[in-house]
Write a structure and sequence with these properties.
Shape: elongated
Number of strands: 27
Strand content: 25-35%
Strand order of the largest sheet: 22-27-23-24-25-26
Structural class: alpha+beta
Largest sheet: 6 strands, antiparallel
C-alpha cells in the first residue's frame, strides 16, 4: 500500500462508465417489529469478515474502495491499479454510505447521514451502503482531505504511517471515518512460507491452491507488493521461487479469481503473474494476459488500446502489425534470429545502418523499419533530443513502468525492450573489432529490468513511442 498520495494527473477516461455497469454490494438490513427481537438477532448474528479492495486511478488520482470482487476486476481491466486489501470490514454493523459525483468522477464515503443527505441535495448520487463499520471500534480508518485536488480529494486508510505522511504533506486530518476489524488478510512478513513440511503455516485458507494427484501443493496465488505472485511448491514446502519462468494451468475457483469452475492459463515471470503483453521466446511470438485475472487469451479476438488482435489455441498472437511498438520489436527479433543463424548482422560503428548495426542505429532501425518517425536521432548522444522532437515520450523517473518496445538509453548504449517482466531485450553488442564474429544483434537479458530498477545507471532514460 502506498504511503504517499500520488500527484493528480489529467483524467484519461470517465469513471462513470465503469461504476454505472457494476452494482454496489449492499448489506440487507432486516427490520423487526419489536426492539427486543432486534437485540436478540444482533447477539446471535455471526459477523464474518469482508475484504475491502483498494483501487487507484493513475489518471485521475482517485482511490476507490469496494467489497465487490467483480467491481474490482472491471476496474482493473479498465486500467485502474489494484493496491491490495484496504482493510477488513465486518459483514454487519453501522452502515457506511457510498456516493458518486458524476461531474467530477469522484466517490465519497461517510457514516454521517446528514453529510450523505447534504451531498444528495447538491447533486451527488447515493449508491447505497458500501460496507459496515465495526461496532466494537477495533481499528480506526482515518480520513484525510486534499484541499488542492479536484478529484480524489479524500483518502481513507487504517495505516497510521500513511495517514501521518499525508497530513505532513499538507492534507487535512479529518479524524476517524469508520472502524475496521483489522488491516489485512494478507500474509504478514511470511510471504514465502505457505507450507512447511506439508503443514499450513499460519496463512488464510486458500481455495486457489493447485494440488497434484497425490495431494501435494504445486502452487498458489498470493498478493503482495501491489501485484499477484505465483508461489510454487518445492518438495511440498511451498517456498516462493522468484526464478519461476513458466506457463502454467491453474484453477479458476476461489475468492480472488471468481471464474467458477474450470482452469485458465497464466504466464509467470520471476515468480510474478504477468498481465498484458509477454514474449514467448521459444515460439518467438507475443502472448496477452487479461489484467484482472492474468488469463492468457486463447482462440479469441481481444482489444488493447482500441486495437484488435487474435490469439491462437496456444495463446500466440502472430499478427501484431496494428501495434507499432510490438511491430518494431518483432522486426528486431527477426534480425537477431538471422544473425544467430547466419552471422549477417554483426556489430559495426563504421557501417551501421544495415546489414551491420551498432547499438543506437539498431534500436532506431527497428522503428524506421515499421514507418515510425525517429526525427533527427542518430546515436545515443542525440537520441533524447531527436526522439522527443518527433513526439516520443522521454522518461527519467524511475517510477516509470517500462513497456515492450521502449528504447532504454544508457550512457553510451541503447537497447530495445522485448519483455520487461522477463528482463528480455534485443540489442547490438560488440565483440572486439567491428564486424567480429559473435558480435551484433542478439537477444539479451538485463537484470536491472527486474523490479523496475532500469535506471540503475546514472543518466539512463527510457524513450516511449506513444502511437
Amino acid at each position: 500500500m502506498n504511503t504517499k498520495k500520488r500527484r493528480i494527473m489529467a483524467g484519461l477516461f470517465s469513471a462513470a462508465v465503469f461504476f454505472a455497469s457494476v452494482p454496489v454490494v449492499q448489506a440487507e438490513e432486516e427490520e423487526t417489529e419489536e426492539k427486543t427481537e432486534e437485540k436478540t438477532e444482533e447477539k446471535s448474528e455471526t459477523v464474518t469478515e469482508v475484504v475491502m479492495h483498494r483501487m487507484y486511478n493513475p489518471n485521475s488520482g482517485e482511490h476507490f474502495y469496494t467489497a465487490s470482487v467483480e467491481e474490482r476486476n472491471v476496474l482493473m481491466d479498465a486500467g485502474w491499479n489494484y493496491e491490495g486489501t484496504g482493510w477488513i470490514a465486518p459483514s454487519s454493523g453501522d452502515p457506511v454510505y457510498r456516493l458518486y459525483n458524476a461531474y467530477a468522477g469522484d466517490h465519497h464515503y461517510t457514516m454521517d447521514e446528514n453529510e450523505k443527505d447534504t451531498l444528495v441535495e447538491l447533486g451527488w448520487k447515493y449508491e447505497g451502503i458500501g460496507w459496515h463499520s465495526d461496532k466494537n471500534k477495533t481499528l480506526a480508518v482515518k480520513r484525510e482531505y486534499n484541499p488542492n485536488a479536484k478529484t480524489g480529494t479524500h483518502n481513507y486508510t487504517p495505516d497510521e504511517n500513511e495517514h501521518n505522511a499525508l497530513v505532513k504533506a499538507g492534507w487535512k486530518d479529518e479524524k476517524t471515518a469508520w472502524y475496521a476489524l483489522r488491516k489485512s488478510k494478507e500474509i504478514d512478513n511470511q510471504y514465502y512460507e505457505l507450507y512447511v513440511d506439508g503443514i499450513r503455516c499460519g496463512t488464510p485458507e486458500d481455495p486457489d491452491a493447485l494440488i497434484d494427484p497425490d495431494g501435494n501443493v504445486i502452487g498458489t496465488e498470493i498478493f503482495m507488493d501491489g501485484r499477484w505472485y505465483w508461489v510454487s511448491g518445492n518438495n511440498n514446502t511451498g517456498w516462493f521461487n522468484r526464478y519461476d519462468d513458466v506457463v502454467v494451468t491453474v484453477p479458476n475457483s476461489g475468492p480472488n479469481m471468481p471464474y467458477g469452475s474450470g482452469t485458465r492459463t497464466i504466464v509467470v515471470r520471476k515468480g510474478r503473474i504477468v498481465t498484458g503483453w509477454s514474449f514467448d521466446e521459444e515460439a518467438g511470438q507475443y502472448m496477452y494476459a487479461g489484467k484482472a485475472y492474468g488469463d492468457v487469451k486463447k482462440n479469441e479476438s481481444f482489444t488493447v488500446n482500441g486495437k484488435t488482435f487474435y490469439a491462437d489455441a496456444d495463446g500466440h498472437v502472430a499478427d501484431v502489425s496494428k501495434d507499432k511498438r510490438l511491430s518494431a520489436v518483432m522486426w528486431g527479433v527477426n534480425i537477431a534470429k538471422e544473425n544467430e543463424l547466419y552471422g549477417t548482422h554483426r556489430y559495426s560503428q563504421s557501417d551501421r545502418w544495415g546489414p551491420y548495426y551498432d547499438c543506437s542505429s539498431f534500436a532506431l532501425s527497428c522503428y524506421k523499419a515499421v514507418g515510425v518517425n525517429i526525427g533527427t536521432a542518430g546515436w545515443t548522444g542525440n537520441m533524447e533530443e531527436g526522439l522527443s522532437g518527433a513526439g516520443w515520450e522521454i522518461h527519467y523517473d524511475s517510477s516509470y513502468k517500462i513497456q515492450p518496445g521502449d528504447i532504454i538509453v544508457y550512457p553510451g548504449h541503447a537497447v530495445v525492450v522485448v519483455d520487461p517482466e522477463d528482463e528480455l531485450t534485443v540489442e547490438s553488442i560488440p565483440n572486439g573489432e567491428d564486424g567480429a564474429e559473435g558480435s551484433g544483434v542478439t537477444m539479451y537479458r538485463r537484470w536491472e529490468l527486474y523490479n523496475d530498477k532500469w535506471q540503475t545507471y546514472s543518466g539512463t532514460f527510457a524513450a516511449h513511442y506513444p502511437g
